[in-house]
Amino acid sequence: MVKQLTSARETILFAAILAILVLVTTRFPGFIAPGNLIDVFNDTSPLIILALGQMAVILTRCIDLSVAANLALTGMIVATLNSVNPDLPIVFIPILAVLIGAALGAINGILVWKLEIPPIVVTLGTMTIFRGIIFVISDGNWINAHEMSPAFTALPRAIFLGLPVLSWFAIVIMVASYVVITRTPLGRAFFAVGGNPHAAVYTGISIGKTQFAAFVLSGALAGLTGYLWVARYAVAYVDIAGGFELEVVAACVIGGISIAGGVGSVGGAILGAIFLGIVKNALPVVNISPFWQLAISGSAIIIAVAFNAQSSRTKGRVILKKAEHAT
Fold first, then answer.
1. In-domain check, residue 315
2. pTM of structure
3. What's the structural domain count of the chain?
4. Where on the phi/psi map is residue 236: left (φ > 0), alpha (ψ -120 to 50), or beta?
5. Closest C-alpha among 11, 13, 31, 12 to residue 21
6. Helices 165-183 and 207-233 meet at what angle, rounded to 10?
7. Which CATH number belongs to the domain containing residue 17 in this structure?
8. CB count, 10 Å around CB of 208?
9. How many Å apart are CA 193 and CA 53, to the nearest integer?
10. What are phi and psi of 159, to 5 degrees?
């Protein structure tokens, strides 16, 4: 039943994406040109990466509102390191970004696991703390392109097999996320903890450890995105990616990841991110202010949550009817 519901959501979302493309194409045929679609996917790649990390957290009945602040802090740290030591081999920068992001995610996970503080409270707090740390280490100053080494900024922009390396990072993480979520004990634990935590405990799954792992995964992907973001735009500052955590949550919810936990798919999270990415890029084409994106995202969240709630009630009625017939 859950798989059928998820598949239906993905089909509806895919159809909505196609409908938007058709409508935009009537105004601007060049929007669906291969080169432009590659640019749209590349622009959406950071959102896809973060949404896949957020999905793991939401599946366990938690939420991570610190992902954008994690991105910003990690980006500032690696940018500062590069400006001080430009000769550091570029291969170490993404690895360092992942480790820093994972450490920041681990802080969230420990507070939720060991101190049993509600995840929304923890991540709201760390979101503010991470932003404050950025200001402290940068003294409020920006790190601009001329302070970064050419290798640092070139990596995500480099073209490989017709796609920017940033897009390839997203593709690799999409594949890796699918494997982890659908083919490993950790992925099954995410669903078990979110779907029925009491049953998960009886099967030997630790709720706290599983939620901790989800926060570490989300943090690691946020850290990697921090480097990719700063390198692509060649600037690091305190308010980088401000409010982006709301788009990340929106992508997950629109993609059918249930806030109640235990329901969702990698494909849904990806489609949710692509939906928002296409909307963001399509609005200027049809002469609609990009600020409407927030209203559209908010409306999509409300519709998605209402759809989830309605589906849950329908499923509950079906179960009750089956029980009545059985008696």
1. no
2. 0.90
3. 1
4. beta
5. 31
6. 170
7. 1.10.3470
8. 15
9. 16
10. -100, 130
Domain range for 203 is 3-25+39-309
Q: Is the dihedral of CA 105, 107, 113, 119 positive or negative?
A: negative
pLDDT digits (tens, 9 = 90+) for 238-283: 899 988 998 899 899 989 898 888 888 999 999 999 999 998 888 8
Residue 317 falls inside a structural domain: no
Structure tokens at 272: 């949710």
* CA–CA distances in Å: residue 287 to residues 37, 71, 124, 290, 291: 19, 31, 35, 9, 12
Q: Which two tokens stand for residue 125?
A: 């707090």
Structure tokens given for 309: 């709630």
> Would you say residue 65 lies in a domain?
yes
Residue 18: both structure tokens together? 């196609």
pLDDT tens-place string over residues 96-133: 999 999 999 999 999 999 999 999 999 999 999 999 99
Tell me if 318 is assigned to some domain: no
**In the block, which residue shows the tokens 């950071």?**
46
CA 192 to chain centre: 21
Residues found in the chain? 327
